[in-house]
Structures are given as structure tokens and as C-alpha cells.
Design brief:
Layout (H helix, E strand, L loop, with lengths): L1 E3 L5 E4 L12 E3 L8 E3 L20 E6 L2 E9 L5 E8 L2 E7 L5 E3 L8 E3 L129 H7 L3 E3 L16 E3 L2 H7 L4 E7 L16 E7 L5 H43 L1
Parallel strand pairs: 3-4, 9-10
Antiparallel strand pairs: 1-2, 2-3, 5-6, 6-7, 7-8, 8-9, 11-12, 13-14
Helix pairs in contact: 1-3
């Protein structure tokens, strides 16, 4: 049975009774529908229109499985005409929301950004909220950039609001995983700048008070660098400047030693395996407390890391020494020692002069006796 609806729309029923035959098919704009409802148009802007004229009426399309609504798609007229996709109903368990201003939200009906995703209060476990996988032989997994040259904001931000003390969460975590048989110069996190006045990587810390056990930057195992390694020493940053006195007395109290790190007790801290030359920090702290700090060190920092894994709080407090701060003391000690040597040399020179004078007088007396 065929029915001409208009000059450009043909309704075709391929079964005798539409409601009784499972293969009933309706075609709009086609005489050979291949779906239960087959709509074909040939226009720049045409298609299916659902218009709900009721007060707060929601034009909705429901997708069901065995009579149970699984997904609802439509416009929520009572919520600023937002386009929504929900499960069970349009406004129940809303999964996606598109506002009229173009803001898209996943698991939030009030997106505050162009793309705003939350977990909707659901516990997602150890998995990520989003995953970007590049399975091809080239290209990056995800890119973020500010292309406007006047935009002074960060191109990518990682923020954590953790307030507990059982884990060490990171705002940004970079992990390079290499499973090949040889060596590969992979990098967990890389920072680089193409400007002569720029900085490749910056680490900083806000010290809000309390135990001063944190770090602005923290490295484990070997640390390599080229170029200039500097610490600020500008006069403008200093006050109450005083000379160092009795540096030799301080140096005489220090106890230089050789030692090995206890790798059996701390195998995953990246400690050096070779013999070390240095001091015992507790001994130095008793003499020069100003050049020591009690700081937190992660005792498992060099363990293999995994993606999507919580890092437990495995820090211990250790006494650390800033060896560079000993340089002025050693320098002053050398100066004091050199001054002592100079004084001794002056005394010896004066003594030699007196001896020479005495020898001259003695020689003169001997000549007079002759």
C-alpha cells in the first residue's frame, strides 16, 4: 500500500498491516525504506521536527530496549531550553547538557566552561575521568595551547585539592614507560622555553608556616646540569651583614668522614653506591644549625611508577646539610690561616733582621779585637 502525502513526500507501507507485522517499514521521501522509519530529504535544511507546544513541554526522543527507556534526548524547556541526554528520563540521570550559550557539560547540568566535565558525585575508582589514547605511529595524545599572543594565562593546569596525609598527589604527573630491550632517553616531564629570558622548568613552594619540611624542588637519584648553577646572593636581598669571626675555631670542631649509604635500609631513595666524603648532619647541626634543615624525603621515590596509581605517603624526616653554605666559613678559615702565616712570616723576617744586626755587631767587635 502506497500513499502520496504531498508532492515531495511519499508514505510507503510495505506490509498489509503496519501494527501487526514485525517488518513494517515507513518511508518518508522514499518508496524503498530499509528501516522501520526511513526519512530521506534533499534540501539544505530539512529533516524531522518535534515541536512541543505545551507549557514547560519538553520535545523528547526516547530510546528503549524491550519497553524500558534507556536514553532520552531532547530539550528541557523548564531549564533554560538546554539540550540534554539522560538515562531513564530526560531530566533523570542527565549525562550530557548543551546550553544555549554553547557550553557543554558532562555529568553536570550547569556547565561553567565551554567544556565542563565532572564525575557527577559518582566514585570512579582508580580509573581516569578521561582518557586520550593515540595508537598511531605519530602525533601527540593531547595538546593544549593559548594561540592569542596577548593571552597571559596558563595553557594547561593540573590542580589537586587533597587535604589528607596518606598519599602524595601531584597536580601534574608525567610518566615515561619504556618496555624495550635497550636503553631509551625517555623523559617523564619536560620543560623548555625558546626565549633567552625564559625558564624551562620552575618549582616553587608557599611556606604558610608550620614545620618547614617541604621543598621548592625535589630530585632523587642523579642530578645532571650544564651551565651556571646559581643561588641568589644580591646585596639588595640582605640585611644585618656582619663578618665571620673565628672561622678556624668552627672548622676545628667539624669532623670530616668517609661513609657508605645504607642501601639495604633505603634501597629505593636513589642513594649513591660509592664511598662518600662528607659530614654527619647531626654533628654539623650541633655546631652550625643555620646550614642544616630537617626535611622530608620520600624513601620510595625511585620505585617503579604506574599510571593511575595513588602514591602513598612514604616520607621520613632527615637532617640535611647545605654544603654550599660552608664555603664562606672555609674561605674565612683560609683567610685567618693565611693571616696567621703572614704574621708568622713577619715575625720571622723581623727576627732574621735582628739576627743579622747582631751578627754585624759581633763581627765588628771581633774586628776591633784584632
Amino acid at each position: 500500500m502506497k500513499m502520496l502525502i504531498s508532492q515531495r513526500v511519499i508514505l510507503t507501507i510495505t506490509a498489509l498491516t503496519l501494527f501487526n507485522l514485525s517488518n513494517a517499514q515507513v518511508g518518508v521521501g522514499t518508496t524503498t525504506p530499509n528501516k522501520a522509519l526511513d526519512v530521506q530529504v534533499n534540501a539544505a535544511a530539512d529533516g524531522i521536527q518535534i515541536n512541543n507546544t505545551a507549557a514547560d513541554g519538553d520535545p523528547t526522543l526516547e530510546l528503549q530496549v524491550n519497553g524500558t527507556t534507556v536514553t532520552s534526548i531532547g530539550i528541557d524547556d523548564s531549564d533554560a531550553d538546554k539540550f540534554k541526554i539522560g538515562t531513564t528520563a530526560l531530566t533523570t540521570n542527565t549525562r550530557l547538557t548543551l546550553q544555549t550559550n554553547g557550553f557543554l557539560g558532562i555529568n553536570t547540568t550547569t556547565p561553567g566552561y565551554l567544556f565542563h566535565m565532572t564525575n557527577g558525585g559518582n566514585v570512579i575508582g582508580a580509573t581516569s575521568m578521561a582518557s586520550f589514547e593515540n595508537s598511531s605511529v605519530s602525533g601527540v595524545g593531547i595538546a593544549s595551547s593559548n594561540t592569542d599572543t596577548t593571552n597571559g594565562y596558563n595553557a594547561l593546569e593540573g590542580i589537586t585539592y587533597y587535604e589528607g596525609n596518606a598519599f602524595i598527589p601531584a597536580g601534574v604527573f608525567g610518566l615515561a614507560i619504556y618496555t624495550g630491550g635497550g636503553n631509551a632517553p625517555t623523559i617523564g616531564v619536560r620543560g623548555h622555553t625558546n626565549e633567552w629570558q625564559g625558564t624551562g622548568v620552575r618549582g616553587s613552594r608557599f611556606n604558610g608556616g608550620g614545620p618547614n619540611t617541604g621543598w621548592g624542588g625535589e630530585f632523587y637519584d642523579d642530578l645532571g646540569y650544564t651551565g651556571f648553577l646559581g643561588t641568589i646572593s644580591d646585596e639588595r636581598t640582605k640585611k644585618n651583614i656582619s663578618p665571620i669571626n673565628n672561622a678556624l675555631t668552627i672548622i676545628e670542631q667539624l669532623n670530616p668522614v668517609t661513609y657508605y649509604f645504607d642501601l639495604e635500609k633505603y634501597p629505593t631513595m636513589g642513594l649513591n653506591e660509592d664511598m662518600e666524603y662528607g659530614f654527619i648532619a647531626q654533628e654539623v647541626r650541633a655546631i652550625l644549625p643555620e646550614i642544616t634543615r630537617i626535611k622530608g624525603f620520600d624513601t620510595t621515590a625511585c620505585s617503579p611508577a604506574k599510571a593511575g596509581e595513588q602514591v602513598g605517603l612514604t616520607e621520613e624526616s632527615f637532617v640535611a646539610i647545605d654544603y654550599t653554605r660552608m664555603i664562606p666559613i672555609l674561605t674565612k678559615g683560609l683567610q685567618e690561616q693565611q693571616q696567621t702565616i703572614n704574621d708568622q712570616a713577619t715575625k720571622i723576617q723581623n727576627l732574621e733582621s735582628k739576627i743579622q744586626m747582631m751578627e754585624a755587631k759581633l763581627n765588628q767587635l771581633l774586628e776591633n779585637q784584632d
